[in-house]
């Protein structure tokens, strides 16, 4: 596991895979043959039954979320085994939460379910139909929601109160941040897969398959982190926060320094397994970033009628571009737009970093009153942005002591969460069928 304090102090190295504590013969012989695919994807976890239907519906949910309808049989078998492990962990988490008198009510489940449906641009009823058509179910999704909510509440009640952060720790972090002013730091997401010498080839193959899924899917990286990662950051979409290269293992630091925002790298061999990382953003510590400037914009849009020929579209786009040259400050935008039949929309407080990369680079070079070159497509029409104002960001500031303390606490809660789950697995009675 790799757990890093967001914005702050230290990075914890992945756990080393070691057999030093076992009494193993130097020249061992395996009696019999193990084929994990022979095991049927069902189990009884402390008397709670996980059925083949549970596994199939959760697999279908993953495939549907990734817009994938079918996988090669070997990949499907691996995914089923992985889902079974996740369902076992989920069951252990719900059971442990109940021992602390934590129960997620039907209303709470429904509220979370409704929010997820909204994220899929569906009503709850439409979401239920979507899940049924995909081979999953409303019950399967709500079970996953229950596991996440129950475990989060358990950690807040049983773990967080026992985590104490000293003033000296917080001050040391702030001092190190001040000393690091101007150095580059990275906002990272991770998927960590544990491996040892025996399992490395299989885990490497699985990591490559995950990267292939990420590259062809429309879901964000965090979705895959929640599904596949074995790190404590799995519960926060794999978010490592802001870290510097010096805080990372050497293998990860070398890759991160060559990445651009939006890129995914891996599988990267690290002690104890493999990492897949995504660079969400990068910046300089405690230094104002021009991309945090907030812009006041006017957007001109010239829509093309359906079925417009390519030559006609090109002519309209050229006329649109010529009209832009007549703009003399934002006060003339409406008049120029009227001459070509373009629509005008005002957009205030738009951050440069929230624009597409190509437009962001152009906006950083514009003066107030200037327009971008035309952009768009024959289907969507042609557009341009006019810069009407810019509020530049203030110089970077140290985080508050409270922010650092909260970050430290979250890191330690994540570590204890993984330790607790490891203990639950060790003590569980699991019967595979």
UniProtKB/TrEMBL annotation:
Keywords in alphabetical order: Chaperone, Isomerase, Periplasm, Rotamase, Signal
Sequence ranges assigned to domain PpiC in this UniProt record: 183-281
Record GO terms (molecular function): peptidyl-prolyl cis-trans isomerase activity
Domain of life: Bacteria
InterPro entries associated with the record: OMP_Chaperone_SurA (IPR050280), PPIase_dom_sf (IPR046357), PPIase_PpiC (IPR000297), SurA_N (IPR015391), Trigger_fact/SurA_dom_sf (IPR027304)
PROSITE patterns in UniProt: PPIC_PPIASE_2
Record's keyword annotation contains Signal: yes
Protein name: Parvulin-like PPIase
Source organism: Sphingomonas aurea
């Amino acid at each position: 596991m790799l757990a890093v304090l967001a914005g702050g102090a230290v990075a914890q190295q992945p756990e080393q895979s070691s057999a030093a504590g076992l009494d193993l013969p130097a020249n061992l012989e395996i009696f019999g043959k193990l084929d994990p695919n022979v095991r049927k994807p069902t189990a009884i976890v402390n008397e709670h039954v996980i059925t083949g239907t549970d596994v199939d519906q959760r697999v279908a949910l993953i495939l549907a979320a990734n817009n994938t309808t079918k996988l090669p049989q070997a990949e499907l078998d691996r995914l089923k085994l992985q889902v079974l492990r996740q369902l076992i962990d989920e069951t252990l988490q719900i059971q442990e939460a109940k021992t602390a008198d934590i129960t997620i009510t039907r209303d709470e489940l429904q509220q979370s379910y409704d929010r997820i449906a909204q994220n899929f641009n569906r009503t709850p009823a439409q979401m239920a139909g979507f899940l049924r058509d995909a081979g999953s179910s409303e019950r399967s999704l709500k079970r996953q929601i229950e596991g996440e909510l129950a475990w989060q509440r358990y950690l807040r009640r049983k773990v967080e109160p026992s985590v104490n952060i000293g003033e000296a720790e917080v001050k040391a972090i702030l001092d190190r941040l001040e000393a690091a002013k101007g150095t580059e730091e990275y906002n990272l997401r991770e998927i960590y897969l544990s491996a040892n010498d025996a399992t490395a080839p299989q885990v490497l193959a699985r990591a490559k398959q995950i990267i292939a899924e990420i590259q062809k899917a429309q879901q964000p990286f965090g979705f895959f982190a929640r599904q596949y990662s074995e790190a404590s950051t799995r519960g926060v979409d794999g978010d490592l926060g802001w870290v510097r290269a010096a805080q990372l293992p050497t293998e990860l630091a070398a890759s991160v320094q060559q990445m651009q925002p939006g890129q995914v790298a891996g599988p990267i061999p690290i002690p104890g397994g493999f990492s897949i990382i995504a660079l969400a953003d990068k910046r300089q510590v405690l230094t104002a970033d021009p991309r945090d400037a907030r812009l006041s914009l006017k957007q001109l849009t010239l829509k093309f009628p359906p079925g417009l020929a390519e030559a006609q579209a090109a002519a309209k786009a050229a006329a649109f571009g010529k009209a832009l040259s007549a703009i003399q400050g934002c006060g003339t935008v409406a008049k120029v737009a009227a001459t070509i039949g373009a629509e005008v929309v005002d957009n205030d407080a738009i951050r440069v970093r929230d624009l597409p990369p190509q437009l962001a680079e152009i906006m950083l070079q514009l003066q107030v009153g200037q327009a971008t070159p035309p952009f768009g497509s024959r289907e969507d029409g042609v557009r341009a942005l006019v810069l009407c104002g810019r509020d530049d960001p203030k110089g970077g500031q140290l985080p508050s002591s409270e922010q650092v303390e909260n970050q430290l606490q979250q890191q330690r809660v994540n570590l204890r969460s993984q330790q607790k789950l490891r203990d639950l697995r060790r003590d569980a009675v699991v019967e595979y069928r």
